[in-house]
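Study this one:
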Amino acid sequence: MSTYHRLLIPGGVYFFTVVTRDRAPRFADPVNVAHLREAFRKVMAARPFVMEAVVILPDHLHCLWRLPPGDDDFSGRWREIKKTASRRIDPSTNARGERPVWQRRFWEHAIRDEADWRTHIDYIHYNPVKHGLVVRPADWPWSSFRRAVESGWHEPTWGEQEPENIADMELE
């Protein structure tokens, strides 16, 4: 068994990649996207955090969270989100009692500074274009891109060309 250590920063800001089991396109079904969104709302109500950006693609998602001051438990939140969504998406279980919805782990990156934050926000919002799902970020329905435009983080036409700051990034 590996001894993976996560960087825990109370009140930290983190980028996450979470993947479905065997890259199954679970979130190609809008009903499953709704179940995931409801799981986020439920967990955020019980254990608050700010979701600064998110994109849900058919077989994975990326998001950027800001945890409350003094709190570093993103793993517990992910456990509850995955558990809550899985119950609705696929109620069957294997011999270990696991539902076949998610890969067991997730990947996280602690955001270091404003430039790192910006790069990861851009990566999240450009991801549907990168995967050939849409031509422009504004065309993807399961993204915080429109909220980012309203916040002044992006122009409405942003992402019609691949941004240079993310051209070589691979965070899948």
